[in-house]
Amino acid sequence: YREHFEACEIPLDWVKEISDLFTAQAFITTDLDDNQITAFHPGAMSFSHLNKVEKAGAKLGIVAPDGREGMMQHARDFAEAGVPFIFDPGQGLPMFNGDELLDFMRLADYACFNDYEARLLCDRTGRSLEQLAGDVRALIVTRGGEGSDIYADGRRYDIPCVGAEQILDPTGCGDAYRSGLLYGIANGYDWEKTGRLAAVMGAIKIAHRGGQNHQPSRADIASRYREAFGEELW
Questions:
Q1: How far is CA 170 from CA 22, 101, 107, in A?
Q2: Residues 206 and 177: beta-carbon distance below 8 Å
Q3: Smallest Cα–Cα separation from 134: which of 117, 154, 115?
Q4: Can you give the pLDDT at residue 36?
Q5: In this structure, is the dihedral angle defined by the CA atoms of residues 195, 146, 117 and 202, taken in order, positive or negative?
Q6: Torsions phi, psi of 150, nearest 5?
Q7: pLDDT in tens, 179-188
Q8: Does the pLDDT of residue 56 top 80, yes or no?
Q9: Do 118 and 144 form a contact (C-beta atoms < 8 A)?
Q10: Are strands 110-114 and 138-142 parallel, antiparallel or unpaired?
């Protein structure tokens, strides 16, 4: 996996190695209707809290599924360092009760969930999406083939789904969508353009098997964006 990171030109400066544990592993079973069951072994991920945000000098962050203590620590670290971040608990959301989830929302600048996670968030906090959106700059809910919603600026932006060249594997589509979010936020795009870029990234991913086997170029991404929305991306 280290070699894979290096091939993707991802810096390893802040990757901590736990020599006597396996890297976290997920085994995902997906049926023809894209329903998924995941078996997960956390391994070295359980020690993620040992990595400190302030040492990395980040300008934008994301608190994604991780060790419970690590997620809580990193959210506090980002907030204390004044680094804007996305709260994206994913399959880790059930680890937290309503009060803890509200604390995450108050610390975060942005929050992102799929439709199931959004319902669970509302159930556990006793608050609606519109109310929760008041705690962050933007709250994003992805809905698979139905597109996504971005609650920001006191309104809801309806982001359409982008048609895929072929539908092979949904595993990793949420991560691809979030890459578009992060890029749009980092580059100061408005929410409609950010959401559309995120949708394009999800459509590119679903046409490839495996979570990290798609390698589109900037030209590929710009072409898909132009084709879907009739305007230039950059």
A1: 25, 27, 30
A2: no
A3: 154
A4: 81
A5: negative
A6: -120, 115
A7: 999 999 999 9
A8: no
A9: no
A10: parallel
Tokens read off for 18: 């736990």
Q: Please indicate, yes or no, whether the overall pTM of this predicted structure exceeds 0.90.
A: yes
Reduce the secondary structure of the chain to three states and give it as a string: CHHHHHHCCCCCCCCCCCCCCCCCEEEEEECCCCCEEEEEECHHHHHHHHCCHHHHCCCCEEECCCCHHHHHHHHHHHHHHCCCEEECCHHHHHHCCHHHHHHHHHHCCEEEEEHHHHHHHHHHHCCCHHHHHCCCCEEEEECHHHCEEEEECCEEEEECCCCCCCCCCCCCHHHHHHHHHHHHHHCCCCHHHHHHHHHHHHHHHHCCCCCCCCCCCHHHHHHHHHHHHCCCCC
Tell me the one-letter amino acid at 86. Answer: I
Residue-level pLDDT at 119 = 97
Query: Confidence class of residue 49 from pLDDT cuts 50, 70 and 90?
Result: very high
Q: pLDDT tens-digit profile of 140-191?
A: 999 999 999 999 999 999 999 999 999 998 889 999 999 999 999 999 999 9
Token pair listed for 62: 């994301």
